[in-house]
Design goal:
The protein has 2 domains: about 5-95, inorganic pyrophosphatase (n-terminal core), CATH 3.90.1640.10; about 100-219, Diaminopimelate Epimerase, Chain A, domain 1, CATH 3.10.310. The longest helix is centred in the last third of the chain and has 16 residues, at about 200-215. Helix 1 packs antiparallel against helix 2. A hairpin with a 4-residue loop joins strand 5 and strand 6. The radius of gyration is 19 Å and the shape is globular. It has helices spanning about 30-40, 50-60, 70-85, 90-95, 100-110, 135-145, 175-180, 200-215, and strands spanning about 5-10, 20-25, 115, 120-125, 150-155, 160-170, 185, 190-195. The strands form 2 sheets. It has a 6-stranded mixed sheet, with helices on both faces. Strands 1-2 form a two-stranded parallel ribbon. The chain has about 220 residues and is of the alpha/beta class.
């Protein structure tokens, strides 16, 4: 049987350019933006379902068009997707404002784990397997929103013994580079990795790298 060909379509800085066919554009805000441009160039029909899925990718990867990766091109693609039938209002409502009650209760518990480090420039929070939250990554943005915080980290327990680490930064720290050093990757301002250990042991391994990235202001 002939070997399957691998197509690599991505927008992350950490992409290693693997595969037989490569379309890697780090200027794109999301893979949905790349797909739209590719389908348009190939003159392929984009259904309203396809448009909805691509717009969902744009919304999540740009933080609802508020992150620095949101470009004029991104907004033009979003407008085209809405014209093609993607329901922006109801999609945003479903993704961000339809939250199960148990998630709200768990959010209160997770927020109680908040710690500040490096004179308030780093925030960390922990998610144990006891906390039932559909998308805990949304919580890391709360840590990032704290005045004076440059880097926010969410450490989440996984069923297989791994700790999932989600990193967000505001303007100075390239968290993708830090995530790559631990075997992960992502965007300059949003990245992550996974590591075996406990919540505390992984936190202890990561904090020196974050403090070093902050430079003299962390001392």
């Amino acid at each position: 049987m002939p070997r399957a060909r691998v197509a690599n379509l991505d927008h992350h800085i950490s992409n290693s350019k693997f595969g037989d066919l490569k379309l890697v554009d780090t200027d794109a805000a999301a893979s949905g933006e790349l797909l739209f441009n590719l389908f348009t160039a190939l003159k392929l029909n984009i259904t309203d379902t396809m448009a909805t899925n691509m717009l969902a990718g744009l919304l999540t990867d740009t933080g609802r068009f508020r992150h620095s990766n949101t470009s004029p091109s991104t907004l033009r693609v979003a407008a085209n997707l809405v014209e093609l039938g993607a329901p922006l209002s109801s999609l945003t409502e479903h993704l961000y404002f339809t939250i199960p009650a148990h998630d709200i209760k768990s959010t209160a518990q997770i927020l109680s784990t908040l710690e500040l480090h490096a004179d308030g420039q780093i925030s960390t929070m922990f998610v144990t397997n006891d906390y039932v939250v559909e998308d805990p990554d949304n919580l890391v943005d709360l840590g990032r929103a704290i005045e004076g915080v440059e880097v926010a980290v969410l450490f989440s327990e996984m069923k297989d013994g791994l700790i999932r680490v989600s990193l967000r930064s505001k303007s100075r720290v390239n968290v993708s580079a830090i995530a790559e050093s631990f075997g992960g990757g992502g965007h300059e301002r949003a990245a992550g990795f996974r590591m075996y250990g406990t919540l505390r042991s992984v936190q202890a391994r990561l904090l020196p790298s974050l403090i070093s990235a902050l430079g003299p202001s962390a001392n």
